[in-house]
Design brief:
Helicase, Ruva Protein, domain 3, Rossmann fold, alpha/beta, single chain, 20 helices, 5-stranded parallel β-sheet, 16 strands, 3 domains
């Protein structure tokens, strides 16, 4: 049972509080400061009620304020509630400035006091969880900038350690927002190439003609406006690592040129005739299924086997168990400091929403939601309405599922259907406005397009990429 220390020299009030609180709490009692401090030191209760008018001078708050000072010096996280008379508001406010949690005016109304106590214990619990988080963060719970205690992420950290010391090509797969680039950077940082450059390029964000010149460079006069020789990413990544993100979007022509490099370690600039030897490691990533792409003749099989000597699949956030809560608290701490907000933690109901939400945008979406919550909340605790997940979660549950929920449906399939229904509902609510839908989902427009394409949702005809 939770403990409360009641420091009160009036026997009638002491009896009233013990009678009113003993069913819910273990009530420790002290008549003065000399009794209160040893009792507090021995039991370390999380919450204390303190009368400022303690003996020997009942009309002077000196003894009560001294008691407060000693308690907070021993345990600054203690929630001390000042219980004082109506004529002593000034000293009650002084106690708040010294670090008291709250104050309450006599005569004591047990119903109101119980609400204050419940809030105090709730806040104490949240702060305790945050303290545990800080201790965990001081230990090695992450790896090369990545955070994860789940078995899935620990396996990835172990794989990175093994492949980093080699020079083989690596293919990283996973949904958008899962942290594929972080995995690639970790491999680079742990490798013997870590003194060299890490050069990332998104193959899906650059048109084919521009992507070729970005990767391979060009000679002066190779095409219109080629006024000077330009090196490509391959050359800039010499003695380092080239990270090809969204390689599944690469055109067949560029796939052939990439294959040649992987086989011969040589490139030619556009408009050039001279082979240039390059010493770079290639790490690729994609959020599409390359096996399907190969069957549809959109991706070369020989290239696939060249880039996937080692394959690492980064799990979606919803499959990472304990990492969801851990990451939520880390993002809360990061943005609380960044925006200079006084937020103690995430309420139990809000954390419950976070843990059951499917997170279609993965870690990136979780970070966006926590950042927005920290900026917009005016309270000391993040509540469900600050996250903006409740309405979406309720909508998912109220909608008709895309298929029947058969008896044999797996959890993975169920989550997939929930994601599909969520995206459909949000896009339809915004009349196909992809920007607004992405903002509500807490993901980028490219990520939303990727998810629509991945699930082959029948809404392409209504999409509008309006500003």
């Amino acid at each position: 049972m939770k403990q409360i220390l009641v420091v009160e020299d009036d026997p009638d009030i002491q009896n009233q509080m013990k009678w009113g609180l003993s069913k819910e709490y273990t009530v420790l009692q002290a008549l003065n400061r000399s009794e209160a401090i040893p009792l507090f030191t021995k039991n370390q209760p999380l919450v204390v009620t303190l009368d400022l008018g303690l003996p020997p001078d009942h009309n002077n708050a000196t003894e009560g304020l001294s008691c407060l000072r000693e308690i907070l010096k021993k345990a600054p996280e203690t929630k001390v509630i000042i219980v004082t008379g109506n004529n002593d508001r000034e000293n009650a406010l002084k106690a708040i400035q010294m670090g008291a949690y709250d104050y309450y005016l006599k005569p004591v109304n047990m119903s109101e006091l119980k609400v204050i106590l419940q809030r105090a214990f709730h806040l104490s619990k949240i702060e305790s969880e945050n303290l545990k988080l800080h201790k965990m963060l001081n230990k090695e719970i992450g790896y090369a900038g990545m955070i994860g205690q789940s078995p899935e992420m620990q396996n990835i950290f172990e794989t990175i350690s093994k492949v980093a010391s080699t020079d083989v090509s690596v293919l990283i797969t996973g949904e958008s927002g899962t942290g594929k680039e972080l995995v690639a950077r970790a491999i680079h940082d742990k490798s013997s190439r870590n003194k060299g450059p890490f050069i990332p390029i998104n193959c899906g964000a650059i048109p084919e003609t521009l992507l070729e010149s970005e990767l391979f460079g060009y000679e002066k006069g190779a095409f219109t406006n080629a006024y000077a020789q330009q090196k490509g990413k391959f050359e800039y990544a010499d003695r380092g690592t080239l990270f090809l993100d969204e390689i599944g979007e690469m055109s067949p022509n560029l796939q052939a040129k990439l294959l040649r490099f992987l086989q011969e370690k040589k490139i030619q600039r556009i408009g050039g005739r001279k082979d240039i030897e390059i010493d770079t490691r290639v790490i690729a990533a994609t959020n599409i299924d390359l096996n399907i792409a190969m069957k549809e003749h959109k991706f070369r099989e020989d290239l696939y086997f060249r880039i996937s000597v080692i394959a690492i699949n980064v799990p979606p956030l919803r499959d990472r168990g304990i990492d969801i809560k851990l990451l939520a608290n880390i993002f809360l701490e990061r943005y609380t400091v960044m925006f200079n907000k006084k937020i103690k933690g995430i309420s139990q109901s809000a954390m419950s929403e976070i843990e059951k939400y499917p997170w279609p945008g993965n870690v990136r979406e979780l970070e966006n939601k926590l950042q927005k919550a920290v900026i917009t909340t005016e309270a000391g605790i993040i509540e469900p309405h600050n996250l903006g997940l409740g309405a979406q979660s309720n909508e998912i549950l109220s909608r008709e599922p895309s298929e029947k929920w058969d008896k044999g449906v797996t959890l993975k399939e169920a989550r997939k259907r929930l994601e599909m229904d969520l995206i459909l509902g949000v896009v339809e609510r915004h009349n196909g406005n992809i920007k607004r839908a992405a903002e509500e989902l807490g993901i980028s427009r490219p990520t939303l397009y990727d998810l629509i394409e991945k699930y082959r949702l029948p809404i392409k005809n209504i999409l509008k990429d309006e500003k």
